[in-house]
Amino acid sequence: MLWSATARLSANPSPLHLPVFNQSITVFGKSKPSRVCCSPSRAMETNDDTSKAKGLSFDDFLSKKPYSPPTWASHLKPIPSHVFSLAHLPTPIHKWNLPNLPQNTEVWLKRDDLSGMQLSGNKVRKLEFLLAEAVAQGADCIITIGGIQSNHCRATAVAAKYLNLDSYLILRTSKLLVDKDPGLTGNLLVERFMGTHIQLISKEEYAKIGSVALTNVLKEQLLKEGRRPYVIPVGGSNSLGTWGYIEAMREIEEQLQIRSNRVKFDDIVVACGSGGTIAGLSLGSWLGALKAKVHAFCVCDDPDYFYDFVQDLIDGLQAGVNARDIVSIINAKGLGYAINTSEELKFVKEVATATVGKLLMG
Ligand SMILES: *Cc1c(COP(=O)(O)O)cnc(C)c1O
């Protein structure tokens, strides 16, 4: 996952096309003396800056730690009691040297794609909180649901395996594939190698029954078998998962603070699939020191659906803020998930050629 930063979003239409990169998250900002004020040091890590700069030590990785929120989020409820270190944090932030940017405009990327290989991307940030709760509740297996190549489902299966928990994935696919072996392509290869339990469901049935009912049926079945399942919703996007991105905001604040050459981000641009990422980012940006405007490009459903969804997530934290005040959601569905027009592909190629193609397309 990538992020970037620029001064005036409206000055150049090209950043608006960024969500065509399925693997990108972008932060837009401007280089000027920072107004970022003090933020508390990260309680879940050691207090010394050198170890932070080097990332997780081997004692930290896969350890469960008591969690304390940033001071600006300490009024939220409920506050998770623990967090699991699954991601390699902090992920780097660097300038993205796009050609032809308007004057005084800079684009920066937050490289969450470097959070760890099998768990890479933003999904792991939510799982750090969700799996801590699963373990605290004494779960022995994890259930989650998503599309056939869902990165969230793969990340969940890998994280569960790290913690010696079984995982059960309900994967949505075409009717045709439900009846035959889904094969070993992409994330399925990883999941099947790990011995993940996979159930396939057709898009039609998924739409009819709904993800919550589907996971509940499986949960009941497993309970009857004497298992102790923990259910993670689509994309890991619930109020608890939102903490992953509240924490990401604290991480960015700290990264900006230790820079000698101060940078301030005016805008954050991010893709939105299941809604948890933007809920955490926009709440963290609003409550914390960053105060950058969050622009979310949704790749499914529509903005009204996501305003309501984000509202539910932040209400679940008793934040007392209005979703429409803290995030602007833009429809970026285009032709549909993973379907591109030739213009979009041309744009992707132009940007990839001008910058680091492999990095963007990977
Ligand atoms: C999953 C994903 C998103 C969307 O996150 P949600 O919390 O599901 O909305 C955005 N960007 C990237 C790169 C992702 O992998």
UniProtKB/TrEMBL annotation:
<dbReference type="InterPro" id="IPR036052">
    <property type="entry name" value="TrpB-like_PALP_sf"/>
</dbReference>
<dbReference type="InterPro" id="IPR027278">
    <property type="entry name" value="ACCD_DCysDesulf"/>
</dbReference>
<feature type="modified residue" description="N6-(pyridoxal phosphate)lysine">
    <location>
        <position position="123"/>
    </location>
</feature>
<dbReference type="InterPro" id="IPR001926">
    <property type="entry name" value="TrpB-like_PALP"/>
</dbReference>
<feature type="domain" description="Tryptophan synthase beta chain-like PALP">
    <location>
        <begin position="86"/>
        <end position="353"/>
    </location>
</feature>
<protein>
    <recommendedName>
        <fullName>Tryptophan synthase beta chain-like PALP domain-containing protein</fullName>
    </recommendedName>
</protein>
<dbReference type="InterPro" id="IPR005966">
    <property type="entry name" value="D-Cys_desShydrase"/>
</dbReference>
<feature type="active site" description="Nucleophile">
    <location>
        <position position="150"/>
    </location>
</feature>
<dbReference type="GO" id="GO:0019148">
    <property type="term" value="F:D-cysteine desulfhydrase activity"/>
</dbReference>
<dbReference type="Pfam" id="PF00291">
    <property type="entry name" value="PALP"/>
</dbReference>
<keyword id="KW-0663">Pyridoxal phosphate</keyword>
<comment type="similarity">
    <text>Belongs to the ACC deaminase/D-cysteine desulfhydrase family.</text>
</comment>
